[in-house]
């Protein structure tokens, strides 16, 4: 019996998303419409601001609000690629007493919204290059987070300042398939590392998602530090598939023009990865 057309549909190997906090729509319903106008396939939702508060400013705990977001995503055909704990960029994952509760809040939100990937930056206060003394506490907390993530059937992707080789060691120490690498191009570029080699060192099964941008300055298509066709070939050769999430790479001459900057980067990534 022939397959139905619906049964033959297959998601593209690479899909392009943007971060709601970077398009200045953190946990705002309008982020979906702006994502549509930008031309991306998906949206990385943030858990909300953190600072010194004991909990994320997470509006998505409310069932009615969550449903509004899910309905809008369906209406506009914009997928939710992941949920981010961006508040940890400037907070200490290792030292905050509330960390286990914050992680659980994110996991609960993921389960309620049927999202499989979380983004967890270890951030400046969890930089294991600058603060190696925090490693035992970070490893222990990530092991605990891995147990919770496994129970919920989700993956937490961590961003570190480590080289790929050192991040492999960290992931091996954590020893959970539910804690993986959320690779960020800008970290490797800043340290003068070869993107393709870093990706290969981590390998297909350790990378759950990618922030496919550099720091601000120029659009991706004008960035001499990223050979995007070579990146695609590397990912192709690795057999990797998933979300490429645009975080930055805004034009320094017009950094506040959200739609212009993110539309340009989304169009360029699609020209490479959807060709």
Description:
The chain is of the alpha/beta class and 275 residues long. The chain has a single domain (10-273), classed as Alpha-Beta Barrel (TIM Barrel), CATH 3.20.20. It contains 10 helices and 8 strands. The chain has helices at 5-8, 30-38, 63-76, 99-113, 135-152, 164-174, 185-190, 195-202, 228-238, 258-273, and strands at residues 14-19, 42-46, 79-84, 117-121, 155-159, 179-184, 207-211, 242-246. Strands 1-2-3-4-5-6-7-8 form an 8-stranded parallel β-barrel, surrounded by 5 helices. β5, α6 (164-174) and β6 (179-184) form a beta-alpha-beta unit. α4 packs parallel to α5 (135-152). The longest helix is centred in the middle third of the chain and has 18 residues, at 135-152. It is globular. It starts with a helix and ends with a helix.
């Amino acid at each position: 019996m022939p397959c139905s057309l619906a049964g033959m549909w297959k998601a593209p190997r690479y899909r392009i998303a943007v971060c709601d906090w970077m398009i200045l729509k953190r946990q705002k319903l309008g982020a979906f419409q702006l994502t549509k106008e930008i031309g991306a396939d998906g949206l990385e939702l943030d858990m909300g601001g953190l600072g010194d508060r004991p909990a994320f400013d997470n509006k998505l705990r409310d069932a009615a609000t969550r449903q509004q977001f899910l309905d809008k995503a369906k209406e506009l055909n914009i997928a939710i690629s992941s949920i981010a704990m961006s508040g940890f960029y400037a907070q200490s994952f290792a030292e905050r007493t509330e960390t286990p509760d914050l992680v659980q809040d994110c996991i609960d939100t993921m389960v309620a919204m049927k999202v499989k990937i979380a983004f967890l930056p270890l951030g400046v206060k969890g930089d294991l290059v600058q603060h190696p003394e925090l490693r035992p506490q970070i490893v222990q907390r990530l092991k605990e987070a891995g147990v919770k993530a496994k129970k919920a059937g989700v993956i937490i992707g961590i961003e570190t300042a480590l080289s790929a080789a050192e991040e492999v060691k960290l992931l091996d120490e954590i020893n959970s398939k539910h804690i993986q690498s959320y690779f960020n191009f800008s970290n490797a570029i800043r340290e003068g590392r070869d993107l393709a080699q870093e990706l290969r060192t981590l390998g297909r099964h350790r990378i759950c998602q990618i922030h496919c941008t550099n720091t601000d300055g120029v659009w991706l298509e004008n960035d001499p530090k990223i050979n995007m066709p070579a990146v695609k070939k590397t990912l192709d050769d690795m057999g990797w598939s998933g979300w490429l999430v645009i975080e930055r790479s805004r034009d320094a001459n017009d950094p506040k023009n959200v739609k212009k900057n993110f539309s340009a980067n989304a169009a360029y990534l699609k020209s490479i990865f959807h060709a």
